[in-house]
DNA sequence: AATTTCACACCTAGGTGGAAACAT
DNA sequence: ATGTTTCCACCTAGGTGTGAAATT
């Protein structure tokens, strides 16, 4: 069985033989990506053209098969008879050249059939994964979602059908009220777990926080605390601080599907990135902004491919050394915080217990909640270790809950990551919006939308110096997070010392909806920042307690610098950041104001 | 006339036709770089193989001709009869494949001859460019330099001859005593200019520094000061500070040839990078480290291609707004400065007077001297504007003098940049050291040398956290710079205010040799830091005086962070950084110690 | 059988010099 | 005739998911 591909629009002075490639998809030797002479096609063409011919046909191994094909069985009524191992994946990307794409061959027997079957099956993954099919949803699992809820008519049957099924548009809540309502009325599986587990957990030994004493150790091995939800009453000054999550829409998209974050030995960035805007700070004061990630519950999970859902797989694995990630630009002046957002794009997650890079260490298949802390450097004459004088507040955004994984479980998460993370652009379907589709629906291309939003708004989070046209998504929506604050004598050292205890957990139940808050969040139970200390500065050394402590003494300013690469990077982070709603959920969730 | 090339060692399953390319070098259409199917060869082969077949033959335009061929006429006695416009450049890079290289064709008439002529002529550029042929040097200009001074026998005549002429080894002072002595006894043309101009310049109006008053303006247009060389006596504390230039050998190499730095509208980095190590600082104190670039003299230069030398072309152009470049990691703690070097790799040079990015603005074809300043943040309660209390010192490394250009003038500088800047690796001759040469001279490959020096030494400038094997050139040689210090009431504001005056200049005459200093450097004339203010922080805004001022108030620490990409980047910066001497010129040039 | 690791193609982001086009 | 600008191929550096292989 052979597929062959012809690419149009190539520079004409190449030999035709090089343009035409025959690949035996049954050959025992797997063809990795496009061969060099195929990849070269791309270079011969314009930027917009993606042509990876060799990938039109390939075999997949068991694991990939199970992950990619099996989940779709659940949602699709079409009977599956053949062994999954015999299936073939459809081309991972469509072939699109300047002149068009044409499948020439494809003379396969059952393979071809199966390929189409699985392609249809994949389309069924359009809608968010649910444990139960919610009322009002298509029981079949959303095979028709593309056309029905997104108001797209059926796309071209060949490559574009699958491509469109996973298109940005198909995965976005574009404000279409019908789908919007359905989603809001539906219990998301992740939230089910979160809320169930949070409710089942007692408050626990949060009161016995001062047992351990690792504060003097350079590399204390501390365990990860659960989320304490009952903060003390903050000082009036700290209470005024509010914190909003940038790119909330993107986070929401992931949250609906059940966010997963890859963890690797060498460390993997989070995507989406935690980005917050702080307000209510004193422009003259200095602040430390940091984040950590704490367990949501005491459970280990597994992903049931046949049900496309997460299941509890038992008790949590032994806790790992907890780490703080201090923002590399710390300390900030209040003035800075008011003008610019704080992006934690550089934080990395790892499953390596012995990590020496200061990455945050997590257990795979566990559920986690990132937290953002802000500490006021109140006393610049503070000693190195005695940090009892500083105040801090903690903000939690429930939509940022995620499951740590070493490989993606839910294919929709993979798809959403690919479509929204610019670094994964190489895996996108280049035929997402073909010329035909644009013509048929008079719809603006994604690129146009991005451009519009890029230039229609003025950058509010940056100084105006960089005239490179950045500023897209600068008014992207935000959401105010719930805040836990303490101004008592709990310190970073205490966080370290106390983190060897497992604490009870109660997830903020009312925070899953935007713009609401409950007074129960202000219960006067201290909220220690717990965990071992992160490495020192940019140098890669573990941050010792004294190092973190010394970083908070004094009132030194962040000296002016000229470059903003750190803030550049994800200002445009793929289609989502730009085209997802301009709403700004400005409701401040702090009840201390 | 046609050249054709056959590349060996390619992956065998490519069509032979694709391996063999015939290119009419007389064709009117210029072939830019290697065509795609030729470039592809490179990908098919190993990393070490570079194959850009199409460049074996090409025509060049007038400008390139004048710049590249004409200079070689001067040094070469061979008579030139034909018009330069008819010449052909030799292949810009050699063709080297895993299996070897073979010139198949080459049936040209005079073109071929001329090509060989110019190739030989290029070899004459081996030695530093000199205005006068110094005694002891080959009067012909060094055509035989490769064989004679480098103790290489005549290399292979074809591609490798030229390749070797520009090899790293040929351009390095490898410690070979014979050449070393010759070089040290020779007056370099740039130094001639520097010293002549410095001597001919009166001290000038250095005393009338406080005339202007731009200190309150956000974007004051100030002129660039000449180098003041007579500092006041520093405070005892500041006098202890010494500053050494990292990668001095690389700077020396460029200095010998007459360093040129490209300036572009959008800004161009410096190469080599200004990197200094500071010692004698108070570990507990906070410091600001910044740099600026000042005119060396009041002259404009032009490059005489036919003489391969720089000539004075008249008085300097009107001065441009002077800019300070504050190191983006400021403020530093003294502890940090003692542990790590300060790299100004991100500073950019521009010729755009209206630059809004905070890049340093220079006049093309003018000679400049970078300076490094360190300011102690003495009083953390200082007001925003009143900065009269801080002390600072200035360090000048004469080997970092350069001429700003919009296009390289001296071809040897181009060659050295290409060979030493990793970003220019694409322009390197892959055949610099062929297998044959290695065999003949039992010489270690450049790669081996780099590797040796990479792993033989332990990193001393970084914390040990990053275990990625970096640390090469970590003990690379340094040289102590001359220091100008003041502890009087001259401030950054004063620098701004006074920079609209042209000041006299006296270049430190004794600093061209390592480890010497003259007492005249300590003459008690204030050394203001002058110029307009750089943009604010990473945000891209011009740095206002108050911004720079506020950055120096308080005693706040640089908060610990985890990543050190900024310090990674140029730790390995091409062969030179690694293989150029392990000497550490540790002689401290400050006479205040 | 489930999960983790690894090498790798393919991106983003941006630093190089070359050559032609442009400006003066 | 000389100097400058622009575009581009070709690098460095590193962030993506992929699928086979390794590990548990």
How much is the radius of gyration of chain A in Å? 25 Å
Q: Could you describe the largest sheet of chain A, including whether it forms a barrel? A: 8 strands, mixed
Q: Can you tell me the CATH superfamily of the domain at 238-423 in chain A? A: Transcription factor, T-box
Task: Give unreliable regions of chain A as ranges.
Answer: 1-231, 381-389, 432-479, 484-490, 496-593
Structural class of chain A: alpha+beta
Shape of chain A: globular
* Most extensive chain interface and residues per partner: A-B, 66 and 65 residues
Strand content of chain A: 15-25%
CATH architecture of the domain at 238-423 in chain A: Sandwich
CATH topology of the domain at 238-423 in chain A: Immunoglobulin-like
SS elements, strand count of chain A? 22
Ends of chain A: how far apart?
69 Å
Helicity range of the residues of chain A?
10-25%
What is the residue-averaged pLDDT of chain A?
50
Oligomer: homodimer
Number of helices of chain A: 20
**What is the CATH C-level name of the domain at 238-423 in chain A?**
Mainly Beta
């Amino acid at each position: 069985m052979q597929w062959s591909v012809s690419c149009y629009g190539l520079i004409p002075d190449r030999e035709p033989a090089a343009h035409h490639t025959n690949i035996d998809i049954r050959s025992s030797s797997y063809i990795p990506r496009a061969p060099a002479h195929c990849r070269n096609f791309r270079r011969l063409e314009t930027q917009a053209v993606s042509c990876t011919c060799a990938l039109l046909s390939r075999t997949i191994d068991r694991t990939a098969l199970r992950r990619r094909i099996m989940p779709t069985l659940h949602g699709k009524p079409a009977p599956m008879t053949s062994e999954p191992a015999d299936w073939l994946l459809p081309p991972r990307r469509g072939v699109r050249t300047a002149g068009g794409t044409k499948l020439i061959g494809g003379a396969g027997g059952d393979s071809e059939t199966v390929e189409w079957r699985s392609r249809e099956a994949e389309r069924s993954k359009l809608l968010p994964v649910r444990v139960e099919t919610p009322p009002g949803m298509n029981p079949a699992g959303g095979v028709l979602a593309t056309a029905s809820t997104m108001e797209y008519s059926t796309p071209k049957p060949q490559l574009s059908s699958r491509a469109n099924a996973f298109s940005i548009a198909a995965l976005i809540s574009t404000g279409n009220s019908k789908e919007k309502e359905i989603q809001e009325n539906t219990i998301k599986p992740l939230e089910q777990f979160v809320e169930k587990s949070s409710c089942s957990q007692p408050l626990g030994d949060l009161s016995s926080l001062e047992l351990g004493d690792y504060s003097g150790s350079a590399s204390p091995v501390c365990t990860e605390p659960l989320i304490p939800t009952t903060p003390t009453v903050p000082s009036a000054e700290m209470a005024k601080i509010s914190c909003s999550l940038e790119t909330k829409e993107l986070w929401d998209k992931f949250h609906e599907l059940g966010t997963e974050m890859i963890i690797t030995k060498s460390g993997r960035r989070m995507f989406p990135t935690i980005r917050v805007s702080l307000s209510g700070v004193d422009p003259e004061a200095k602040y430390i902004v940091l984040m950590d990630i704490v367990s949501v519950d005491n459970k280990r999970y597994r992903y049931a491919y046949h049900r496309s859902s997460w299941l509890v797989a038992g008790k949590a694995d032994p806790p790992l050394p907890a780490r703080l990630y201090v923002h590399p630009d710390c300390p900030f002046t209040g003035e800075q915080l008011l003008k610019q957002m704080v992006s934690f794009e550089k934080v990395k997650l790892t499953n390596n217990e012995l990590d020496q890079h200061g990455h945050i260490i997590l257990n795979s298949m566990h559920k986690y909640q990132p937290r953002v802390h802000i500490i006021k450097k109140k006393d610049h004459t503070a000693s190195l270790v005695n940090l009892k004088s500083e105040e801090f507040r903690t903000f939690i955004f429930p939509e940022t809950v995620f499951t740590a994984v070493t490989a993606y479980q839910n294919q929709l998460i993979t798809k959403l990551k690919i479509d929204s993370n610019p670094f994964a652009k190489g895996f996108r379907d280049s035929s997402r919006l073909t010329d035909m589709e644009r013509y048929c629906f008079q719809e603006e291309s994604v690129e146009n939308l991005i451009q519009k939003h890029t230039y229609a708004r003025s950058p509010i989070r940056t100084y105006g110096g960089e005239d490179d046209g950045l500023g897209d998504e600068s008014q992207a929506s935000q959401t105010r997070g719930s805040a836990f604050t303490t101004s008592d004598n709990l310190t970073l050292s205490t966080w370290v010392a106390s983190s060897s205890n497992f604490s009870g957990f109660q997830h903020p139940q009312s925070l899953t909806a935007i713009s609401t808050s409950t007074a129960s969040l202000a219960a006067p139970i201290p909220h220690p920042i717990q965990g071992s200390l992160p490495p020192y500065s940019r140098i890669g050394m573990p941050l010792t307690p004294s190092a973190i402590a010394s970083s908070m003494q004094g009132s030194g300013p962040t000296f002016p610098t000229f470059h903003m690469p750190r803030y550049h990077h994800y200002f445009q982070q793929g289609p989502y950041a730009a085209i997802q709603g301009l709403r700004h959920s400005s409701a401040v969730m702090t009840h201390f104001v």
